[in-house]
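Budget justification, computational time. The allocation requested in the original proposal was used primarily to generate structure tokens for proteins on the priority list. As evidence of use, we reproduce two of the resulting records. The first is shown immediately below.
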Amino acid sequence: MINPLIRMAKVLGKASSAAMVLAMTLSCSTTKAETEQRWLSFRCPDGRTVIARFEPQDDFVNMRFEDRDLRLPHVISGSGARYSDGKTTLWNKGDSVFVEVNDKIVVRDCMLEGKAQG
């Protein structure tokens, strides 16, 4: 007959192993999801580029423009998607974006280029 304490230790050992495997699996899937998010490049008529990574799971866009990295929250818009921190605004509609800074459009008609960047 197996001592009840030994039996409990074996059960707990198996449970903690299962928990560890689950944690490792979830950790791997998070990493995969992060890698699947891609930066999109939008070429503007004046030659400048707006780079953006949309994060719909938390309603933000990460944006790179003119040597600045910004994280802008999604805000209500009548048409398209609008992200703004109150100073800088990125508008996205279809395959194009435009950027406003202090309520002035700084680039417009920036069109999505090729494939997403990793």
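The second record produced under the same allocation is shown here.
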Amino acid sequence: MFDDLPIVTRSLQIVAGGMLATGLLFCIKRFNTRIKLRIAILALVIAAVVYVLFALLTRNQLFITIELVGLMFFLLLVWMGYQYSFWFIAMGWLLHVFWDLGLHPAQTAPYIPQWYTWLCVGFDIIIALYLVTILVRDTEK
């Protein structure tokens, strides 16, 4: 469905993405929650911009437009996170998983390296779960 990679290869790529996310979280663990959330916001924007950059390399107007629409959507979530609630940022990371899987299988987005989609899934899930954890913890205080 998504690509011709064996399930073991996909699984390893997802784990690698999770390990990268864990490494980022380890690096920022000493910061307060507000700074951690700002880093998560910046990382979400970067995650969306990377797809735009891949599309720009193709010079295919349709691919570029699709990725720019995605970027605008994630920027909207970032704005809503700043204006209303950081829960929108956690939701953005969860929705980015669907962006990865729903729009970027090898057959429909040949400009995205197969390994990147799966790496991104692992990264997105760990960051989303972490944000939910700290937001719930801070709500209970």
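A brief technical remark on that second record: Helices lie at 7-27, 33-58, 61-83, 87-103, 114-140.
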